[in-house]
Specification:
The structure holds 2 protein chains of 2 kinds.
Chain A: E1 5-15, H1 19-30, E2 35-38, E3 55-56, H2 68-78, H3 85-104, E4 119-120, E5 130-131, H4 137-149, E6 155-157, E7 160-168, E8 171-179, E9 185-195, H5 216-223, E10 228-229, E11 234-241, H6 255-258, E12 262-264, H7 288-299, H8 319-331, E13 341-344, H9 351-357, H10 359-369, E14 378-387, E15 390-391, E16 405-407, H11 424-446, H12 454-469, H13 476-490, E17 494-495, H14 497-514, H15 527-551, E18 560-561, E19 575-581, E20 587-593, H16 599-604
Parallel strand pairs in A: 1-2, 1-9, 2-6, 9-16, 17-18
Antiparallel strand pairs in A: 3-5, 4-5, 7-8, 8-9, 10-15, 10-19, 11-14, 12-13, 13-14, 19-20
Chain B: E1 3-11, E2 16-24, H1 31-41, E3 61-64, E4 67-70, H2 76-79, E5 84-88, E6 95-97, E7 100-101, H3 104-112, H4 131-141, H5 148-152, H6 154-157, H7 167-177, H8 187-191, H9 207-211, H10 218-235, H11 237-246
Parallel strand pairs in B: 1-5
Antiparallel strand pairs in B: 1-2, 3-4, 3-5, 6-7
Helix pairs in contact in B: 4-7, 7-10, 10-11
Classes of the chains: A alpha/beta, B alpha+beta.
Bound molecules: flavin-adenine dinucleotide, iron/sulfur cluster (2 copies) and FE2/S2 (inorganic) cluster.
Chain lengths: 607, 254
Amino acid sequence: MAVPYTTSEHDVVVIGAGGAGLRAAIEAAQQGCSTALICKSLLGKAHTVMAEGGVAAAMGNVDSHDNWQIHFRDTMRGGKFLNNFKMAELHAREAPDRVRELEAWGAVFDRTADGRILQRNFGGHRFPRLAHVGDRTGLEIIRTLQDKAVHSGIDLFMEMTVIGLTKDGDRVSGCVAYDRKTGEFHAFTAKAVVLATGGIGKSFRINSNSWEYTGDGHAMAYRAGAELIDMEFVQFHPTGMVWPPSVAGLLVTEGVRGEGGVLKNNQGERFMFNYIAEMFQAETADTEAEANRWLIEQQAAVRPDPRTAARRPPDLLPRDEVARAIDAEVKAGRGSLHGGVFLDIASRRTPAEIRRALPSMYQQFKELAGVDITREPMEIGPTCHYIMGGIRVDAATALSTVPGLFAAGEVAGGMHGANRLGGNSLSDLLVFGRRAGLGAADFARSNGSVGQDPEQIEGFIGEVMAPLDRASGPGPYEIASQLAASMEKNVGIIRQADELELGIAKVAELAQAYRSVRVVGGRDFNPGWNLAIDLHNMLTVSEAIARAAITRQESRGAHTRRDFPRTDKQQWAQVNVTIRADADGLMTATPTPLLQMTPELAKLLEG
Amino acid sequence: MADVRFRVWRGNASSGAFVDYDVPVTEGWVVLDAIHWIQAQLQNDLAVRWNCKAGKCGSCSAEINGKPRLMCMSRIEDCVIDGTITVQPMATFPPVKDLVTDVAWNYTVNQRIPPLAPKPPEADGTWRMQPYDVDRVQEFRKCIECFLCQDVCHVLRDHQTWAFGGPRFMVRTASLEMHPLDTGSRLALLRDARDGLGLGYCNITKCCTEVCPEGIHITDNAIIPLKERVVGEYFDPLARGLTRILGWTREPRT
Ligand SMILES: Cc1cc2nc3c(=O)[nH]c(=O)nc-3n(C[C@H](O)[C@H](O)[C@H](O)COP(=O)(O)OP(=O)(O)OC[C@H]3O[C@@H](n4cnc5c(N)ncnc54)[C@H](O)[C@@H]3O)c2cc1C
Ligand code: SF4
Ligand code: SF4
Ligand code: FES
């Protein structure tokens, strides 16, 4: 007996209502397209709401030496030159306009003394570049976009989960979803689909992500024939909470270090001075005295002269460098009681300054850990935070390798290369969310209507109904926790071939178990059933990460191989690892050449 | 730590009852951890909303021992009474399932509020706002839309008067009315007790302010100034004139 479903038709369907999805939907609607917006949670609760530190845009409000060229350079260096340079260029050029546009829509950023948008320091950014609102920048951005969107004539579908993309020939024709409240199914027909589903953090045990981060967009695009790139690059944020266990992984914003916070081991030593990689030596302070002078200069009313200014403290190196350093200190026995290191802002700024600049960090530690960060250091350690890899897209239009399928935000790959700089995600969402909305609207306008195939729709529905009908089998929570534990152990911060093999084998074993996964209860708001459905995607992206990781035989950015510790200057410097399904539906990982950079841009990277 | 007995409301729109679960809690747990433990170990279909687990998204609202709170920010040791913690869904909104309620009405209220109408930018295309100008609206913009204030407000909870927008949307309206760049006016909407926001229904009991997890002074800083503006605009031409000339001068509470 076929399960019934309802249907609707739109020019553009946007899947995901974080910063990228909202911005895309607003743009598509402004272009005159009938637009649907679908999200798994309530509106305004997507991951973007949790972003803390700020949005990177070279506006030069605090230091007028800043410009898009330097932002481009910082982004490429942070990404270890693997980035899609066109994306990095568009991003650096357009971010300032996207931030100012938010102001016109009601956002209220913190201000400079002369009334302009205030910008703060962050890891890997040469100048104070992050526009922010205390440490709740994501809330400001998502609320602004949400309020703009509800007045843009968009059809909103909240608490609906998309389970598959349908196709008409080569071209995407829509998607199938279920309503989490009722369990009822709905098929969307659309001339163009934008994926803006965010990341994959739930594949790792310790993470800073919410239940939504099961890699749905990555997996659905892959199954629809799209290419994924750079999946080996998973960012472990250096500063997650480590204690108490129930909050392990919860993010501590890099803003703490941007405001002067420093990392120390259990000897009280500022160990980051021992971990300055060659590439960053020229622009990093190598003594405590210089690092301290930097903080004083940053707080002064007049900006330092760049020729004589102190260089940035090593605590503000890019995230991959800092996460590895912390990992090494802990392994050398210089960690804290609970397996982290110390992050100290109390000895660097006054209590009033700390509460003003980092109110939600103050709150988070006070309420959840019983620690007063204005008096004591925080205990922190690396946490799985973000995936650089994602759907391969065209920089200008956000089109994937499948006609009619667009992608923006964390689910898209290329922008950040091997490692993302803090603050570059929120700006990425705005720049490429808008471009995806434009691209989808153009595509919808210039291509006729699509046909919907009931067989595909029923196929997706049948798959997700099956676990409800089984009388026995493993539960979804059991499989999910085994997967996350294995990924952390075998495909984590430091990797090597034999462990990666184990990781791949474990994914295969769990995928086998998944075929008989059983769910108790009905379809109405049943988190067990919801997880069973998302688990399929977690397994797919976990396999993609592990396969990409074993393929790249070098260490670069967020991908560190114990068996290949060097960064290769030849072969691996010139390729992305591309994941796609072969003719038999098996996953393959192949190196594919990078885009060739124009000489003008290449010049910006020198020095 | 010893087991804690959780009395959790289970049910749906038509019926429901409290069910007891004994949970082996560990150091540092919040109520949401216990709910997740029950969900993973005993009852996979126990419905609950959450996202950030850090008091940032406003998803996990419920009534803990009868008090509206965020489950992720409620430490277990602060909530246990005689070895027991009672958790039930927000009472003001229709139940969907277990701890999940239907809060869609709130989104329709928001849609009725006209957005920012900014004044023209400076010559360079950007706006200047002084730090002290933005302080006041930034307090309102801290709102995480947990709807706990809506849950506790007797106008909605006891009288089910849906012509009242509720404290959350007084905060939202205040954030626009007091926005340094705004040129619009939402006073007629606030005053309209049928299709508007029905500000007059609020009799300043301050219950909303007490439950706000963001510590927003909802009554003192949003509702009372809005009431004064409405009165000034509609009933007191002199006050209106002065307000226009002097700008808004009442000092917000911090
Ligand atoms: C704690 C934290 C702090 C951060 N701080 C910063 C910062 O300061 N600066 C910065 O630049 N970046 C920061 N980041 C990173 C940044 O917040 C995220 O990368 C970014 O918000 C992702 O936005 P997005 O629009 O791609 O996805 P999200 O905001 O995650 O939205 C994804 C959307 O897709 C929906 N979705 C997913 N799957 C489905 C499906 N199957 N069906 C329907 N809908 C679906 C979800 O419901 C959601 O609406 C931070 C991240 C975290 C976790
Ligand atoms: S002060 Fe007004 S809005 Fe707040 S709870 Fe009381 S009646 Fe409701
Ligand atoms: S005003 Fe406070 S209580 Fe009300 S919804 Fe916002 S954060 Fe929650
Ligand atoms: S889960 Fe986000 S506020 Fe509790």
